[in-house]
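Support request, please re-run this one:
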Amino acid sequence: QVQPVESGGGSVQAGGSLRLSCTTSGGDISTFSLAWFRQAPGKEREGVAAIDSISSPIYGDFVKGRFTISKDNDNNIAYLQMNGLKPEDTGLYYCAAFSNGKGSRLWHGRYKYWGQGTQVTVSS
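Re-run finished. Output below.
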């Protein structure tokens, strides 16, 4: 069983940067799809970015070139580099792994394993 664990969240001012990390135990990260999601209070969980071994990474429309998803297969870690953060980026960020191949790569129902989340707070 794959267990994602997120880290790297924190509080920054608007325009700042954070790099989130997702370590995955129980599986070889090079063999499965992985995605980042976020959820703000009172809002639905939304897909931020997704990556797999076949296709190019994809991003939510709101990212607009500010974030980059990547994987370090040698160390079994995935990253989400976030630049140009905005207050509306505030939320709990989750790493999800192992796609069932159904629906959009940014649909939360596509992924089997989830981490507990790391909080990102952006102040104006």
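The first strand starts at residue 3 and ends at 7. Residues 35 and 50 are 4 Å apart (CA to CA).
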